[in-house]
Amino acid sequence: MSANLELAAMIYLVYRMKLRSRARQDMHGFWQWLEDRESWFYRDLPMVREVRWYYSAVGDVYTLENWAAFDDEAAWGEYRKALSTLKADHGWESQRVSQDEWWEFLDTRIVTDLPARVGFQRQGR
Question: Is the dihedral of CA 21, 24, 26, 28 positive or negative?
Answer without folding.
Answer: positive
